[in-house]
Amino acid sequence: MTSSQGVHAIIPLSLLEAMRNLDTPIDDGLAELAHEMVSKRLGLSSTVATQIERYRSQAERQGSVSMDEAVSVFRLVSRREDAQLVFADAGRRTARLAARSAPTWVRTLLKAGPRVLRQRAGVRATARVAARVLDAEVTPQSGGLAEARLTESIASRASAAGAGCYYYGAAFAELLRLLSGFEGAMLHEHCRAKGDPDCTWRSTTVEGYE
Ligand SMILES: [Zn+2]
After folding, report:
1. Interval between CA 114 and ligand 1 midpoint (Å)
2. By mean pLDDT, which of 5-19, 23-37, 52-66 is the weakest?
3. Beta carbons of 166 and 173 less than 8 angstroms apart
4. With contact defined as beta carbons under 8 Å apart, do 168 and 157 qualify?
5. In this structure, are residues 68 and 6 in contact, taking their beta carbons and an 8 Å threshold?
6. Contact 95, 170 (CB under 8 A)
7. Where are the alpha helices (DSSP H) in 24-146?
8. Cα 123 to ligand 1 centre (Å)
9. What is d(CA 80, CA 88) in angstroms, rounded to the nearest whole number?
10. In the Cβ-directed half-sphere of 79, how many Cα atoms lie within 13 Å?
11. Cα 146 to middle of ligand 1, angstroms
């Protein structure tokens, strides 16, 4: 990944949408009071709303933003106290948006195909989507499992490895769930925030996953 390389608009879009979502108050009858309290929250600001619209139209055209811009959005989220929550929610949003670009036959297979085929094709589809959108390397493992690896990520560029890795972990797990029917967790085994050369994740099954 070079700094001149563009970043898929889905990524900053997901981050800002997750931020706005977490800053939106639950309607508990205290709406008026809440409105005053939350008007200072960044996620509800008109600047964020404008940026979300811009990223959404770029994402629909499969457009990209500059690396610097994506890094600054990552940095913005990383300064929040609830950064892990925002990153995890954003990762799932990215996966849902990105999975729509997977071929229709993969999604048909997922609904009706035999389990082994489904897992194999699903992990391969995940690998393609992860390479294209997240610039990550996903490698199939036996039993429909997968391993994901990132050397340089937007999180590490934003000095937000660690919390920012929740974004990637959530995105990998959700992509695998959507495209291969995986029902497990992604373990973040190695992390650049801990001094490891790469960030790696390994999928693990949970009880009930066939
Ligand atoms: Zn990491």
Report:
1. 34
2. 23-37
3. no
4. no
5. no
6. yes
7. 31-38, 46-60, 67-78, 83-99, 104-112, 115-134
8. 21
9. 13
10. 7
11. 17
CA of 167 relative to ligand 1 center, distance in Å: 10
CA 51/CA 40 separation, integer angstroms: 17
Angle of helix 115-134 relative to helix 10-23, nearest 10 degrees, comes to 90
User: Are the C-beta atoms of residues 42 and 48 closer than 8 Å to each other?
Assistant: yes
The H or E element that residue 8 is part of is: strand 7-8
Output the CA 163–ligand 1 centroid distance in Å. 8
**What's the pLDDT tens digit per position in 170-194?**
999 999 999 988 888 899 999 999 9
Say how many Å lie between the CA of residue 87 and the centre of ligand 1. 12
User: How far, in Å, from the CA of 124 to the mean position of ligand 1?
Assistant: 22
Tokens standing for 91? Answer: 């990762």
Q: Ligand 1 center to residue 184 CA distance, Å? A: 19
Nearest to 173 by CA among 44, 87, 70, 49: 87
φ/ψ (deg, to 5) at 206: -115, 165
According to the model, what pLDDT value does residue 3 have?
Answer: 46
Q: Where do we find the tokens 């959404």?
A: 56
